[in-house]
Design goal:
The protein has about 325 residues and is an alpha/beta fold. It is built from eleven helices and twelve strands. Strands 2, 3, 4, 5 and 8 form a five-stranded parallel sheet that branches. A three-stranded parallel sheet has the order 9-10-12, with helices on one face. β4, α4 and β5 form a beta-alpha-beta unit. The longest helix has 21 residues. It is globular, with a radius of gyration of 20 Å. The chain starts with a helix and ends in a 7-residue tail after the last helix.
């Protein structure tokens, strides 16, 4: 590592250590990840890859004590959280969690919690990835997407990675809040318009990879079956998604599943208070959102915020986390 990188890492670790000490036993950063790609993705160069994840874990390891999320939440609740505690979480169930992230976590002696949408295990494809891969794999240089009937999506250029990435963002935004039954025909129509060919079937974990995480001592949590936006469902549909996802994991792993993550996870927009109550009724011990911030002892344990470390590991990332320590986001109980 270059001298400049060593100095930056040392200063960053010192800043994180100071911030963590200020938080004491009442602050718990919960980092949230989705994928850790083996190498940088030219379509999304800002997303985390193995090299960046390794640097981030090295930085966190110098400043924090990484705890399993379930243990950390219990200690936070009881006022017994050790100084500089931090937890790591992954959402959805991507295969690279087992193939790329797990070996790096093991190298650094760290644990993480993995929230699994059971409907995609063993060859499934999440709706957002279906969009991403359709755009990525299209052989076209331009396409007429007006037949989709989506506002702002008409004739589009596909000549550069930047144009394809911009189109993906424009497609995901309106399709996200459709129900799973409404999404499927739109995405099938999109694939046809883009002449995208076959969709990949290896992005998500298979059952062996899921069990490998468990055998390695990683914590497994529930994330529904089909990753719907709970706020768009009827109460019965929401209960079914949450309960069946939990039951399927418990059957596969022969172990209780005590943690839950809300799909998409923004309070009042993606899930509501009744879904937090439902998590209690279904026997979960805690649930996490994507509300930005650091969990505090006074937070509702069924609406815990998480810190999203999207910036590259370094001064800017440290600055984000330090600010979160000083101004924790609280989801009212």
């Amino acid at each position: 590592m270059a001298v400049v990188d060593l100095l930056t890492a040392s200063l960053a670790a010192a800043g994180l250590t100071l911030a963590a000490r200020l938080g004491g036993e009442k602050r718990l950063p919960i980092l949230i990840f989705h994928r850790v790609r083996p190498e940088a993705d030219p379509l999304f160069p800002g997303e985390i890859d193995a090299a960046r994840f390794d640097r981030l874990l090295r930085l966190v390891g110098r400043s924090h004590r990484v705890l399993p999320l379930g243990e950390a939440v219990r200690r936070l609740r009881d006022g017994r959280l050790p100084p500089r505690a931090l937890s790591i979480s992954f959402d959805d169930g991507y295969a690279d969690n087992a193939e790329v992230a797990l070996p790096l976590l093991q190298r650094h002696g760290m644990s993480a919690s993995f929230f699994i949408a059971t409907g995609f295990i063993g060859g499934g494809l999440m709706w957002n990835d279906a969009i991403i891969e359709a755009v990525r794999r299209s052989p076209l240089q331009q396409a007429d997407l007006a037949p989709l009937g989506l506002e702002g999506v008409q004739r589009v250029a596909l000549q550069t990675e930047a144009q394809r990435a911009a189109l993906i963002e424009r497609l995901i935004r309106p399709i996200k809040y459709l129900t799973p039954a409404e999404r499927a025909p739109r995405i099938a129509h999109l694939r046809a318009l883009l002449q995208a060919g076959d969709a990949p079937r290896d992005l998500m974990m298979d059952l062996d990879q899921l069990r490998r995480l468990q055998r390695a001592g990683m914590e497994i949590g529930a994330h529904t079956v089909n990753h719907p936006i709970l706020a768009t469902l009827t109460p019965a549909q929401a209960r079914s998604e949450m309960a069946e996802g939990k039951a399927q994991l418990e059957q596969w792993l022969d172990a209780p599943v005590r943690l839950f993550a809300y799909p998409n996870g923004r309070p009042d927009q993606d899930y509501r208070a009744e879904h937090a109550q439902l998590a209690r009724e279904l026997g979960f011990e805690a649930a996490v959102s994507t509300a930005p911030g650091i969990a505090t002892r006074g937070d509702d344990p069924f609406q815990l915020p998480r810190f999203t470390p999207w910036r590259r590991p370094g001064a800017a990332w440290v600055g984000q986390l330090v600010k979160a320590y000083r101004e924790p986001y609280r989801v009212a109980a």
